[in-house]
Protein: Dihydrofolate reductase family protein
Organism: Rhodococcus opacus
Amino acid sequence: MRKLVYYAAATIDGFIAGADGSDPTGTIFEIDGDHMPVMIAEYPETVPTHMRAPLGIDAPNNHFDTLLMGRASYQPGLDLGVTSPYAHLRQYVFSTTITESPDPDVEIVAGDPIEKVRELKREDGKDIWLCGGGKLAAAVEPEIDELRIKLNPVAIGTGIPLFDGEFGPQRFRLAASRAFESGMIFLTYVRR
């Protein structure tokens, strides 16, 4: 069975984006540093399709073949005219406000996110990437098998939390960690 993996960047105070939900790349999270070539080489599929050619990325998907995101995570790309941000993956956007997909490569899911995750896990293939946001992560928390967190050495005080919703304490075990000169620490946790 495939795993649901929450792979995301976070601040040391637990936020995945600023309070306004703006795209944090380059403003909150460092995009320069010794961690970037390593993360791109290991997770090339997490680079948006429109950025792959300019960055010289022509690599197969190492870990994921399916992507899940909430509407707020999808919106910044839409605002730039990018309707299929990860065309090299199967893309599912969970939303009750978008009724029709603006792109045939993106499926809008208005129903129960837990049921959709369970359906996807039963399929053959690579793991499923939960890329954001905090509300969707909280909604599917019981189905998250691993957390792969790029912990960045910055605190922002307020913003969109890694999990934006209520649930009881959940235990994870640290399976791996790697520190970089840039200060970013890549942490892998698995559900106990």
